[in-house]
Design goal:
This protein is of the alpha/beta class and about 375 residues long. The chain is built from 13 helices and 12 strands. The structure holds 6-O-phosphono-beta-D-fructofuranose.
């Protein structure tokens, strides 16, 4: 009997979702043309609400280079999975019951989940409830524990790097300080990579709380040394030393009450007063998640997809397909769920960046 496999993309989109699904599907169809693939629409919402499409091999052709996800996606908080499916039916099925019900009703052999951190908690829960789950690590943030690389990351770093590249000429023309805010949620992988690749002079990441005075000292020092401009790459989740000491609610309160919409603008407000040069901000935002996957991500997702399909064919479930020691392997979902892969303080990129004169906002700078 041909296999019946479900597929869904969950959480924020990123480059490489389509190419990853294509990898899974092509391998499965190559093994057995009769394989049935069910595509759930808008992530876990489709699984809960039985909103799905019966896919055909044609659906997976011509999508290698296409950004976004052909299935659509949505964010469904893990914390709400035990809540009623419909708010007005308190005694009705929970979201979790509904998802398990759909899987059973459709008599799936396996479900492939392409998701980030939050989605992996739900993937693990479904696996613990006995569903045959295989997951793939998608996110531009590269923050999924257990894999050396997530897909989407390299494509987004390329875009963030181009943004920094593009700022150089205008920063130089005007002799200004530019602050470029880079996505990455609570971790600094994207900013560290794009900052180094783009030649940023200051890199601010959540893992290294910064002192705004030290950042001002760094850019003023550069100006006094006749450097025409400075570029600061700041991660959207970066915090000052003071903010890093705050409780979550204190910090959220501060952010909510601030008229300044993001970290770049909050830093700019301080630097406006302290910098001897004019300051400007650039926030590329979701642009970093858009467009076609890079060659790296196309290759990575093809291999991850093929491995996911092979795991289904070999009935090896309950795993996320990722990279460990440069090899594509299955990592148990229970080890992945609920953990965050931050940039370790002893990461070679931090020390190499410091050795090339890049500031991280935690330095003591004299005569600034
Ligand atoms: O997790 C990917 C990501 O792009 C983060 O870098 C960012 O913080 C977040 O998603 C934005 O989420 P949303 O698309 O829901 O605005």
């Amino acid at each position: 009997m041909a296999l019946k496999v479900g597929m869904l993309t969950s959480g924020g989109d990123c480059q490489g979702l389509n190419s990853a699904m294509r990898g899974v599907a092509k391998r499965l169809y190559e093994y057995d043309k009769e394989t049935e693939i069910i595509g759930f629409l808008d992530g876990y919402a489709g699984l809960m609400l039985r909103n799905f499409r019966r896919m055909s091999a044609d659906d997976f052709s011509g999508i290698l280079t296409v950004g976004g996800t052909i299935l659509g996606t949505s964010r469904q908080s893990f914390k709400t999975m035990q809540d009623p499916l419909f708010a007005n039916q308190k005694d009705g099925p929970t979201k979790l019951d509904a998802m398990i019900g759909t899987y059973k009703e459709l008599d799936l052999d396996a479900l492939v989940i392409l998701g980030g951190n939050g989605s992996h908690k739900t993937a693990n829960l479904l696996s613990e409830k006995g569903l045959n789950i295989i997951s793939l690590p998608k996110t531009i943030d590269n923050d999924i524990w257990g894999t050396e690389m997530t897909f989407g990351f390299q494509s987004a770093v390329n875009i963030a790097t181009e943004v920094i590249d593009g700022i150089h000429s205008t920063a130089s023309s005007h002799g200004r300080v530019f602050i470029v805010e880079i996505m990455g949620h609570k971790v600094g992988w994207m900013t560290l990579h794009a900052g180094i690749a783009g030649g940023a002079d200051v890199i601010l990441i959540p893992e290294i709380p910064y002192d705004p005075m030290a950042v001002a000292a760094a850019v003023n020092k550069r100006a006094r040394e006749h450097k025409r401009f400075s570029i600061i790459a700041i991660a959207e989740g970066a915090k000052t030393k003071e903010e890093a000491k705050m409780s979550k609610s204190e910090y959220n309160g501060k952010i909510e009450n601030s008229p300044l919409i993001s970290v770049a603008y909050r830093l700019a407000a301080v630097l406006d007063k302290l910098s001897i040069q004019e300051v400007r901000c650039v926030v590329p935002g979701h642009f970093q998640r858009g467009g076609t996957p890079s060659a790296y991500d196309r290759v990575l997702t093809t291999s991850l997809g093929v491995e996911a399909a092979d795991m289904i064919l070999n009935k090896k479930y309950g795993k996320m397909v990722g990279i460990v020691n440069s090899k594509i392997v299955g990592i148990p979902l229970k080890e992945v769920a609920g953990k965050l892969k931050t940039v370790p303080m002893d990461h070679y990129l931090i020390s190499d960046a410091r050795k090339t004169g890049i500031y991280f906002g935690d330095e003591k700078i004299d005569n600034a």
